[in-house]
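Before we proceed, please read the two lines closing this message. Let me know whether the structure tokens fit the sequence:

…
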Amino acid sequence: MIGDGWDGQNPSRPREPTPVRRSRPWRVAVVTGSRADFGLLAPVMRAIASRDDLELLVVAAGSHLIQPGETFRDVKALFDVADSVPMQVAGRTGRFEDAEATGRGIARFARSFGALHPDWVVVLGDRVEAFAAAAAASIAGIAVAHVHGGDRAEGVADEAMRHAITKLAHLHLAATRESGERIVRMGERPEHVRVVGSPALDDLARFEALDDARFEELGRPSVVLLMHPIGRHDEEEEAAAATAIDAVRAALPGASILALEPNHDPGRNGVRRAIQAAGLQSVSHLPRPLFVGLLKRMGAERARAGVPAPDTAAGLLVGNSSAGLIEAAALSVATVDIGRRQAGRERPASVVHAEESGESIRSAISKARAVDASRVEHPYGDASAGTRAAAAMAEVDPTSRALLRKRCVY
């Protein structure tokens, strides 16, 4: 039986942890390696910091430290940073470069954890930063808690990396019941699997919809394009992004499109070239309060326009980001999910899938415009994931031999 937590269908209050005998709080090192995972980990960090039986240590790594974007500033604005772990090199992207960065990360995380002496190391998802931190901690005998394990999503190397982290981890904080069951089928102990929901939903209520001035500054977008590369050559990624842009313009000729720049993954330069060639208004990074505020404003604009939405107020997120399946769905913004990056991931009814062809994307846009995104049952929880995750780490003894000595149960 999977451990206590949100059961994927019937939300319940987080159980108060059973006290564990100890003379001090558990030291919890939360590793954030990119803008993508930081927004999700922030509620977990706040929940840890709010407890007397846990001590928060924030480690900023990877693409947070790449110039010129340096989303490290966003992390430092909200939390004290205990250490930073550089991995990638600015201007160098590619699969071999990622492999080198992972090696550097494992070595540097080992030094960091040796100095910080954490009892728990927390990672999220499937990126190379999470894998490097989990590998260093697990080999060093430190308990690893993995958020959003068990999901299915192809990404660049996401499917392999996420499940590899699961086998390195000791406590599994799954976002859905289906993901939790998948972790158990991988041979993990059921009592070490907690279905907590997705922390991506936890902080949505904290942020206001964009005001008129900020919305105007971004071009009053009715469509947000958020395309990440999936590890192909720049030319292939450029062609895929250009196809998506052309399809949006053909399907919604009056739409204002705002492009958000892609993650620092192999193929990033190709996506950026397509955005520049199309002359789209773009931003390199929207801090999470602004990103959520933009989605809230678009959801409100869509609601005012009615269903189906007129061309000039489509209220769509188009691309291949998990934000379309999780945050956008919770904020009444319909999503056109393109290609294979999110293949296998659970998705609400506000998400319409499209292949990487102009015809398929145009058809999906037409269907998405007809979706009533305000009436969607969300599979990723009830906005209490951070609280549940922190409670689980307080309840489970990270020094226990039964936890640290991994054994496949089948």
The first helix runs from residue 35 to 49.
